[in-house]
Specification:
about 20% strand; 27 helices; about 40% helix; alpha+beta; 8-stranded mixed sheet; binds phenylalanine; binds zinc ion
Length: about 850
């Protein structure tokens, strides 16, 4: 059993396991509540280890028998496994255990989802399948036999034999247990083939439940595009005869990169124009790529221990973002990533859950699959590439794959490769992995005798466990513009290493206008009081698409803050400048849609908090609403042309071009709805032949309080489609008026289709509530209390998803005393729940600080 008494594990305590595993043979006799797992494992003493203690992990297993070299042994049973005297030479361990997949609601280990068996072993799920040294530095070759009457029986690697009621699989590539997978079910496949660059023919399959086979084509194209891209850009080829993807409905995360057998949350692979939005398509393409890219960055080269999680995740996120940039638009991808980073990672890094990209301790590793490890981890790779240059990056990556293929590695190994490839000393750069918190970068400027000087000061506020911060290496991409908008200095990367540092640009005729942190070259908060005129100038002239967008975003933020704190009206100068940009048909519609997006209400709350103003969620909501209203009114004259321009007459394609048009059209529809009360939206809702148009219309109708009929007909149309119903559940809460959000969420939890044990459905409602800033933070505390009630209920079934959803409370210290007290009371109530899981215990105690 997992026990709730917190035990902290430290990076500094790492010790190799006393044995190496030569091979693993597993036999599964699948029965819903009495599955037998027979293991036969060869162990040899590990020459790199001194401690020869033979201790295996195991949780929630019923031990039937244990043998060493054929003789029965009686292990000492521990809370989290067993221990037994073992020979100091090669030996064979055999065990038989019984497990109950059908009763497994935590969705870790072997479990059942809609009648199919599937597994989730990362990070520590394999120990719920059999006794094993369940740690990523123990790698081995696996042979698996599955016995079941179900027609489709899958595991890692290549199929070796099969017959009536059984199948055998062999994975020739040594792997850690967290990459083990097994699937058994009544499934149908969408097959295809791929010929690798060296001419190897690979069988590809996407396996789904009958009825979903028409939703696989897009995922398959994305898979083939990923395979080709990794060959072309990283020189990495696939290494088995077969690659399988399986869609499952009950899954805690997005997807999992098990060797040769990726398992996906069905929401991250199934797609059709009628049921999926453009955003869904783009996300599916990215996740398929992400899991596929793990084959090299994660599987062939894995992590020594879970503290090194960013070694595979940061790099793989970085790789999938490069892929999306290549498939679609690089500036649009960059802006979207930065919105995401600021929306999820910054609040994490600036609150009680702040931790380094490579944490130094944890109680439950599941709690560290975070935006910091993933997204900031990817930013760190991007900075490294910017600092060393593209050629050196390519050289270092080749060296990484050559040197470490087949190994379980550390961040030290990763950085050493870059040091060896470039001759650079990366010891200061390494602080990006050990220091938590978001650095803040202040800038001042001077112009004298043709020389322009930029002076930067960096400073990172204290974070939990880290009061003092050292200066970090910041790549600051800067360009200089002349008053007429021409670029006098193209993008230059300044390498800042000191707490305070100046950089000079000489030979200039006049004081230039700087464009700083182009492309968001470092994940910092830029503290620069740029004048409104200067931002307006950059919005009009900046040659860097990111900073052009950023100028508008800054103006929007500053304008909204002034509306909230000083009661002024909308910034009409900015609205007019933005109007010109949005009407400019030479600009990519997707980019213009991003120009139109306003800072989130949570972001505004954070800004106010940093300025020493206690954020009032309702005031923030009202200002945002007023601004949108003013925008709609003052832009009425350009809307007809935008409607024309964004019409898609070709057959639906979820590509960058069409989805960009539809994204801009959605913003236009939102403005039209403010002007006509929902007439156009209603017509669009009724005639829409794809989910993007249907859902954008429904969103507008909800916001206009005119959605009652549409919600009913949407339900009738889609009640049998789980993934679409998740949208129906989520949107009603996320788009509700603040006063209605918690009530709406509560009503939905009483709905017949609220299958709360399904993580997607639970997240739809409560993720929707958390996203509704003013609704969640309703002054009466009803949003907080409802979420706390349900987190307590879910924790008994699914600790991992519960702990993850506790992050809705991570910004609690920003708000007024009354809200703080209410949130604290909720967190305390959760923490005092009897039998609370280790996952949620750790999260709540960190949140309370
Ligand atoms: N390793 C998975 C990924 O990043 C995420 C994951 C973690 C999935 C833990 C399940 C459990 O692609
Ligand atoms: Zn990953």
């Amino acid at each position: 059993m997992k026990d709730a008494s917190p035990q902290t594990i430290y990076l500094k305590d790492y010790k190799p396991f006393g044995y190496v595993v030569d091979d693993v043979h597993l036999t599964f006799k699948l029965v819903p509540n009495s599955t037998r797992v027979v293991s036969k494992i060869t162990f040899s003493p590990n020459p790199d280890a001194t401690d020869r203690q033979f201790r295996l992990h195991g949780e929630q297993l019923k031990l039937i028998s244990a043998k060493i070299n054929g003789s029965d042994v009686s292990p000492v049973m521990l809370d989290d496994g067993l221990m037994v005297d073992a020979p100091n030479e090669t030996f064979v361990w055999e065990a038989e255990v019984e497990i109950a997949p059908e009763a497994n609601t935590a969705l870790e280990g072997l479990y059942m989802s809609n009648g199919m068996y599937c597994t989730q072993c990362e990070a520590e799920g394999f120990r719920k399948i059999t006794y094993y040294p369940d740690r990523p530095d123990v790698m081995s070759v696996f042979t698996v036999r599955i016995e079941s009457d179900l027609p489709v029986l899958l595991s890692n690697g290549n199929p070796v034999a099969q017959g009536e009621g059984w199948a055998e699989w062999h994975d020739p590539w040594p792997k850690p247990a967290y990459l083990f997978a097994l699937v058994a079910g009544d499934l149908v496949n969408h097959p295809d083939r791929f010929v690798t660059q060296s001419g190897k023919d690979v069988e590809l399959n996407i396996w789904v439940r009958p009825g979903d086979e028409n939703k696989c084509a897009f995922g398959m194209e994305a898979l083939k595009a990923s395979m080709r891209w990794d060959e072309e850009v990283y020189g990495r080829e696939y290494d088995l005869d077969i690659f399988n993807i399986v869609a499952v409905d009950d899954f805690n995360m997005g997807a999992m990169e098990n060797k040769g057998l990726n398992i996906f949350n069905s929401s991250c692979v199934l797609a059709s124009p009628e049921t999926s939005t453009d955003a869904n398509f783009e996300r599916i393409e990215a996740i398929i790529a992400h899991e596929y890219f793990h084959n090299w960055t994660g599987n062939r080269i894995t992590c020594r221990d879970w503290f090194q999680l960013c070694l595979k995740e940061g790099l793989t996120v970085y790789r999938d973002s490069q892929f999306t940039s290549d498939m679609r638009s690089a500036p649009v991808k960059r802006i979207s990533d930065v919105i995401e980073l600021r929306g999820r990672q910054f609040p994490e890094d600036q609150g009680p859950l702040s931790h380094p990209v490579r944490p130094e301790s944890f109680q439950e590793i599941n709690n560290f699959y975070t935006a910091t490890v993933y997204e900031k981890g990817a930013e760190v790779i991007g900075m490294l590439k910017l600092l060393v240059g593209d050629d050196a990056y390519a050289k270092a990556l080749d060296m990484y794959f050559d040197r470490h293929d087949g190994q379980a590695c550390t961040i030290e190994d990763w950085l050493k490769v870059f040091e060896d490839a470039t001759g650079r000393d990366l010891s200061q750069f390494k602080r990006w992995y050990s220091q938590s918190g978001t650095p803040r970068l202040a800038v001042s400027e001077k112009f004298e005798d043709g020389t322009y000087t930029l002076t930067f000061k960096q400073h990172t506020p204290p974070t939990p466990g880290q009061d003092v911060k050292e200066p970090q290496v910041l790549p600051i991409a800067v360009g200089l513009l002349a008053q007429d908008g021409t670029e006098v200095t193209p993008t230059t990367v300044l390498e800042m290493t000191e707490a305070e540092q100046s950089f000079e640009f000489s030979g200039l005729d006049a004081k230039p206008i700087p464009s700083i942190l182009r492309g968001f070259s470092a994940p910092v908060v830029l503290e620069r009081t740029t004048s409104r005129e200067e931002n307006l100038f950059l919005l009009e002239h900046d040659t860097d698409p990111f900073n052009r967008w950023e100028a508008s975003r800054t103006l929007a933020r500053e304008g909204l803050i002034a509306m909230i704190t000083d009661g002024v009206g909308s910034d009409t100068l900015w609205l007019n400048a933005l109007k010109t940009a949005v009407a400019d048909s030479t600009l990519d519609p997707a980019y213009r849609a991003l120009l139109l997006s306003l800072p989130t209400q949570s972001e505004l709350a954070q800004t106010l908090f940093e300025q020493g103003v206690t954020p009032d969620p309702m005031a923030i909501w009202t200002a945002t609403d007023t601004l949108r209203e003013d925008m709609a009114k003052s832009w009425a004259d350009i809307l007809p042309a935008l409607v024309e321009e964004t019409k898609v007459i070709e057959t639906f394609k979820p590509d960058a071009e069409q989805s960009g048009k539809r994204a801009l059209a959605a913003s236009v529809l939102a403005m039209q709805t403010r002007l006509d009360g929902g007439a156009v939206a209603k017509a669009q809702f009724e005639t829409a032949d794809n989910m993007t148009l249907q859902l954008s219309a429904l969103t507008c109708l909800i916001q206009a309080d005119a959605a009652e009929d549409a919600l009913k007909s949407f339900y009738d149309q889609w009640k049998d489609d789980r993934l679409v119903m998740d949208k129906w559940f989520g949107l009603q809460v996320a788009a509700a008026k603040p006063a209605d959000a918690a009530k709406r969420a509560k009503t939905l939890t009483e709905h017949f289709d609220f299958d709360w044990k399904n993580p997607n459905r639970f997240r739809a409602v409560f993720g929707g509530l958390a996203m509704n800033h003013a609704g969640f933070h309703n002054a009466d505390g009803s949003g907080y209390a409802l979420l706390a009630d349900w987190l307590i209920k879910l924790d008994a079934k699914n600790p991992q998803t519960t702990a993850r959803m506790c992050t809705a409370f991570q910004t609690w210290k920003r708000y007024d005393a009354d809200r703080q007290a209410k949130m604290r009371a909720c967190l305390t109530r959760i923490s005092e729940t009897k039998g609370l899981s280790r996952d949620t215990t750790e999260m709540v105690s960190r949140l309370l600080g």
